[in-house]
Amino acid sequence: MLQFKRSFLTVGLTLVAAVTGLAQTQTLEGIKSMSRSAITPIYAGHEVKGYLMYGQADKADRKNDNYHLDFYDQDLGKVSTVTIQKPAGKYYLLDNAFNGSAFALYYFNQKDKTLEIETYDTGLKKLASKAVSTDISKMEMSGIGQKMNTNNAGGEGAQLFSGLDLRPVEGQGFVRSSADGRRYLLEMYDNNLNLKWRQQTDAKAKMLEMLVVTEVTGNYLMGTMMRRPSLLSQQLSSYIVAFDLSTGKKVLDQPVESSKTEQLSLSSVGYDAARKEFVAVGEYYKLTDKPFVNKSQGFYIKRFDDKGKLLGIRPYNWQKEVKGLLPAEARKAMDEGFINYTHSIQKGADGSLYLVAEQYRIGGKGMDVALAVLGGGGGGAKGIIGNMLVFVLDPEYKLTAIKCFVKDESKMALPPGAGFMGAGLTGQFIKAYGGFDYQFTQQTAANSQFNVVYINFDKEKGEATKKVVGNILFGTTDQFKVDKIDGNSAATYSYVYPAKPGYVMLVDYLKKQKQMGMKLVKLNM
Amino acid sequence: MLRWLLLVLLLGIWDARAQSVPVSRPYFMPDTVRAYKLARAHRTALLAQLEGAALPGNADYRNHYRRISTEAATDIYNTIRYSALLDTVLDAAVQRIFSRIQQGNPTLRDVELVLVRNPEPNAYAVGRTVVLNVGLLPTLENESQLAYVLCHELAHVQSRHLQTTLHERLSTLHSRDMRRQVRHIVQAEYNINSRMKELVMGLSLSSSYHQRRHERQADSLGYELLRRTSYAAPQAYRTLQLLDVADAPASETNPELARYFGCGGLAGRFATAPAPAKSIFTVAGPEKTPLQTTDTLKSHPDCAKRMAYLHGLAGGQIAEGPQPVAPAFARLRDLSRLEVLQSWFDTECYDHALYEALRLLPQQPAADSYARAIVQLSLYQLRQRLTEHRFTEVVSNSSSPQPAAFSQYLRTLHELRATDYADLSACFAQLPTSPAPVAASDSDEYALAARYAAAALAPDPAPAATLRRQYLADYPRGRLRELLFAESQIKRKSN
């Protein structure tokens, strides 16, 4: 959230700021504080079509503050400002979603302890407002707190464990997901926030369920479901699930990590609309191996039809299928114990499948690693983040190329018990706490061009250290290319946000000068 | 004797070289001492004028006044120091016109005119200095129109509008009433921003009212001053007509990008401009403040209102519609366009520089080699900024306030990739040169720099090193040296 300075001068400067910006930059003065979540990109499908800036302005009355919702278009042209009056200092914007005909803004009302949604039409006239949850779980509260306080690079999917999610459904409305660690809840609303359907864990279910939504595509909402018998249980198993968006009915619920010959860990799940198949991707281990102590055997792709029937599982063994294609740098890292976390799976316009992954491993002294794995202590164990990888599979799922993009290693502290989570889950933990360098993947509407963005700097020493904003460009019209932007600046905080195709947006906040600058940067393609 | 012979020989070479240089070039004087002295003189004069008088009001008023005086003096110093155009043709011409006005109005003799390299069509008065942007000259048709603009600014000086405005605004700002209002808003705690905004809007309304009153006075007095000269007073009305559409010419002629760049692999690329990105918002237009939308809140009244006023003042004796342009003034306009183009380039507005150079090519054959050089140099700079991730700092955004044709051109520019610039440069180089009356020599500074830029853009940039050495040897104090071969770059390349 932004906080505006309340002074006479600021008013004048803010007025000036409002009329500037012919170029693809915006400079705002009088900003007292800023977090990463103050700006959220507005997506239409896969493309960034604007930005929403949320800021606390001044007091409206004894109990309420004025909050500004500043809408910008994809070129950083100011569209409009909407002022809302909400509980003083206790009203936060969590996310926004645009479904082609309406905007939904997802808020946390700390005063009333509620989650609220407001919808606006494309002319920014308010359509509806509703408190969608009056019973916020501890897990969600933790996620909200993390989102509000995270100033480091977090990138997309950093709220993985909060269960909080709001997804647009084109032309129909919005789906909200919720979780408390015991059960999941899905609710579909139309643009006027009328409830269309609700889906949740069966009251008679013996297992605790947690849903992480990964994608809304066509007619389906997809996600990974984690089930365990009790809160303290270590027997965690992953399933891929899909829900019909028109009815809320669950159409797919398949175990992923169960195998007689291997341990499977689930990284991501997507939907191939052309083939009408669900595709799950992860890594696999020997049954007797321990993740992180032993190396994974490779990665796999598991496919299901839209009825949930298993179509096949294809393993890609590091030694057999992968090693021959691995560049030398990636092979060396693999020998050092690095494994891959798959951030995103992209389907190209020509049918190629791209798996965007980042290498990571547990580092630290031997005892720390052991404690982290066993669940005790672990104060010195760190997640070590390595290179970026892009696996290219042809339309028949044959691995055709692996591209490695070397980065400086960065580290993040792991909490005790990280080892209990399993390989995939530990990766997801690092993801949730912004430990990976990967930020986001942006793509053109036609899926012809992709840009994988990462920020490389030493997270232990902070952003003041050498910082590189890397852009891995590829697609049907491009060879793989890396465009590195020098991310060093005198700013107190710097952030990178997705932007229109061919660009990224860099934001610098200078605390002393109370100044924030937004700039679109054209990439070298 | 031998020395004399050598000197005559050298002078002969120098003369031959001078003759080979085309006439149509923007003015450049590496020696900036004259501009420095002039800037200092104007700064001193302004400070003396503003701070010489005893100041009324309280301590806040006086401190604020001094701060503004210092800032204004610094501004005028920087403007003159870094952009004064002290050439022998344009400056001489505008100074001559200014002198004629002063001869007709002897009480205005202690005011000075400075012509500056600013591409925006504008003129203004600060203290006893009238600043004329060179960008205004191409929009006018004759000396009488320029004389009216200068008379208008002289009227501001004569009426002491700057001092009056300063006093009025600061008196209001530091008045007891204003302090009470601000204190009241702050103490009330609630809705401070919106209430402050209302207060500021009130102040703006008040100051705009006074400023509009000053503009009307300047129109009126300026017209009287013009009448006392030998210039044609009916042209005053036509001047306002032209200023009303000052931004329009850019949209009339769109450079034919396909003609200049549509060869080889780029054929067909420029046949149609990229469509503007569709906005997801249906909000009616970009947000505008009342200062932008309400005529009564603008500092200057709409030209239509000013014209109607002047029409009445002149008793219907007005010149309307396009006026014949005398050859001498046409020459001034042509030269000023070169200065405008160079100004865009010098201020790193490479999108404007490229656009104006392409527009200039078919219109001024005498400036063909210069315009071609600026095209190559602009392409080089655009590619450089793109690879340095600073493209959006030197290229405007395509948006509604821009003329349609320029917006279309900008969209094309934004679509280009770094790898395209080599082809653009090669395509452009193939274009037959205009049969200019005086051809550019290969050793002409611009031609040489353009050859370097084209070589640096080419797939094999090796020849660029040779051209760089040649430029640095031939033009140790060249105009483009700093831009193309800044000391840091030279050191980096030599290491």
From TrEMBL, chain A:
This is Uncharacterized protein. It comes from Hymenobacter lapidiphilus. InterPro entries: DUF6770. It comes from the Bacteria.
TrEMBL record, chain B:
It comes from the Bacteria. GO terms for cellular component: membrane. Pfam families: Peptidase_M48. Residues 91-312 form the Peptidase M48 domain. Keywords: Hydrolase, Metal-binding, Metalloprotease, Protease, Zinc. GO terms for molecular function: metal ion binding; metalloendopeptidase activity. One of its GO terms (biological process) is proteolysis involved in protein catabolic process. This is M48 family metalloprotease. Its cofactor is Zn(2+). The keyword Cytoplasm does not apply. The keyword Protease applies.
